[in-house]
Design a protein that fits this description.
The complex is a heterodimer.
Chain A (H helix, E strand, L loop, with lengths): L1 H22 L22 H8 L2 E5 L2 E2 L3 E3 L6 E2 L1 H14 L8 E5 L5 H6 L5 E2 L7 H4 L3 E2 L4 E3 L1 E6 L15 E5 L3 H9 L4 E5 L2 H9 L5 E5 H10 L3 E4 L6 E3 L2 E2 L6 H14 L2 H9 L1 H4 L10
Chain B lengths: L4 H4 L5 H31 L4 H15 L3 H11 L13 H27 L3 H9 L4 H16 L1 H14 L11 H12 L2 H29 L5
Classes of the chains: A alpha/beta, B mainly alpha.
Chain lengths: 292, 223
């Protein structure tokens, strides 16, 4: 069913690309990496293996605005992570449209590592924080996005500006998250209200039953989008570097991917993707993951 | 050693305080459900038809919707209709207490109703002919005998209630299960954390079962 859908989608896309090319109108092949030739790799490298298979299998989230979302009306994957994956796929196959050579696999937080270990995807790009525990099980690329924990309050709140202001306040976060640990460490007098996910936290904030929600800024972006009467405040008080995950011992894959990520940042594609997906919710613009 | 994590974990207070919250929640909601359930049972067998309808509606509503849904309603939806079940700190506990009491009262009502109907009609007729009012007959003749006969099924309801208190963790009550979840997320030792939780629930439910059996033997009368 799903395979058929993708095939149909790919066909429609291919037709669209053809039509553009034939018409000579439009800016077809705007991407700098859209070389017409397929790059060649050493036969033993994992890049050659993927080329031979014809598809780059990308594990991403389908419910995580603005990073990875399967658009319910178009059934297309979109978001920051998805666009970075498309750039990698274009470079790997030397095609103009990444979707022609990508097979998306939906993942959730808990299935990211198993998806790689069971070889259901070649890469996982899904707001995946690089840490030592995970590095024991899989490999990571360099940091392609850096975020940290921040605070979400109602728009009219003027008293909470920083993590220290959470002392003596009611703060909502999710059970089983590093966010909860960070709040306890940095604002020990805060009263925690721990829910299973962040949607209940937003309800409690709207009802005035907690003063703030605190977790990774990227999750807060999604909450702001749901409720524009909220705002994100303060500086980062934790460090969350996102990397692209893949199975250990993929020959040459780390070097190739890090090289491509450098190119994506250097020629401005990274800034463009950031502006498309992150700027509407963050209000800022960045040229690279470190924001410099 | 399974369960060793309870003693080993640096923040020792988590499991004991969670256990204490669970005990409080269980005892208070059990008392609430016994009182409310008995009342509903009396409604269910009342001579006046409207009272029977009210009792019946209560049982059908609370027995036929999931407890989790009732808890979510009490915790998230009540403020929309202007009801605040407590301060920011006590809201979750009160919602859980109320939810558990209301839900199990429906089961208690059915058990007690069965007991009331099981009393020999002749006894009630004798009581009434001696000049006792309907309520007096209920109070002095029917209810005392009913409680004796419904001890075993009420024991079942009580044990189910103790286990169902764990649903309170989903609305943020810092009970025993919640303690297990926090320890698991901080130590990544899921097996140990949840084995400890399970053992601590057994510490509550097994003695409760033994107590109910003892009470049953104690109150047994030769017939």
């Amino acid at each position: 069913m799903r395979g058929q859908l993708f095939r149909a989608m790919a066909l429609v896309l291919a037709a669209a690309v053809l039509a553009t090319a034939c018409g000579g109108a439009g800016s077809g092949g705007a991407s700098p990496s859209a070389g017409a030739t397929k790059p060649s790799f050493a036969a033993s490298s994992y890049m050659a293996t993927i080329q031979a298979s014809g598809k780059l299998r990308v594990g991403t989230r389908d419910d995580n605005v603005p990073f990875g979302l399967k658009n319910p009306t178009t059934s297309k994957y979109e978001g920051f992570d998805v666009d970075v994956a498309r750039e990698l796929a274009k470079a790997l196959f030397g095609v103009a449209n990444g979707d022609d050579v990508i097979e998306f696999v939906s993942v959730v937080s808990a299935t990211r590592i198993p998806t790689l270990q069971d070889n259901k995807a070649d890469i996982v790009i899904a707001t995946f924080t690089i840490n030592d525990d995970r590095k024991k099980q899989i490999d990571f690329s360099d940091v392609y996005f850096r975020t940290g924990q921040k605070i979400l309050v109602k728009k009219d709140n003027t008293t909470i500006k920083d993590v220290k202001d959470l002392n003596g306040r009611n703060v909502c976060s999710a059970k089983g998250s590093t966010s909860e640990k960070n709040i306890t460490a940095q604002a020990p007098q805060a009263t925690l209200n721990l829910q299973d996910t962040y949607a209940p936290c937003l309800i409690l904030l709207q009802q005035g039953r907690v003063d703030a929600i605190s977790t990774d800024e990227t999750i807060l972006f999604g909450l702001v989008k749901q409720d524009p009467n909220t705002k994100i405040v303060g500086a980062y008080f934790s460090d969350e570097p996102y990397g692209i995950g893949f199975k250990k011992d993929r020959a040459g894959f780390t070097e190739w991917m890090n090289g491509e990520l450098k190119k994506i940042v250097a020629d401005g594609r990274w800034a463009k993707i950031y502006k498309q997906w992150i700027t509407p919710v963050s209000g800022d613009e960045k040229k690279n993951p470190e924001g410099k | 050693m399974p369960g060793g994590i309870v003693l080993e974990f640096p923040e020792l207070y988590l499991f004991p305080s969670g256990l204490w919250i669970t005990v409080q929640l269980a005892i208070l909601s059990l008392l609430g459900s016994l009182v409310l359930g008995t009342l509903v049972a009396i409604f269910r067998v009342a001579p006046a038809r409207p009272l029977r309808w009210i009792g019946g509606a209560y049982v059908e509503i609370f027995r036929n919707t999931p407890l989790l849904v009732q808890l979510f309603f009490l915790y998230f939806a009540t403020p929309y209709i202007g009801i605040y079940l407590g301060t920011r700190e006590t809201f979750a506990f009160n919602a859980a207490l109320l939810g558990l009491a209301l839900y199990h009262a429906a089961y208690v009502a059915e058990v007690v109703r069965g007991g009331l109907l099981g009393i020999d009609k002749g006894q009630i007729e004798a009581a009434r002919s001696l000049g006792l009012s309907y309520l007096q007959a209920l109070r002095y003749i029917q209810l005392p005998q009913t409680f004796r006969s419904v001890i075993p099924p009420l024991g079942n309801v009580s044990i189910a209630l103790v286990k169902n208190t764990s649903l309170a963790a989903t609305i943020g009550v810092a009970d025993l299960l919640y303690a297990g979840e926090i320890v698991e997320s901080r130590t990544f030792r899921a097996e140990e954390a949840f084995v400890a939780v399970a053992l601590l629930y057994l510490v509550l439910t097994v003695p409760l079962g033994i107590g109910v059996n003892w009470l049953e033997r104690r109150l047994q009368v030769a017939r």
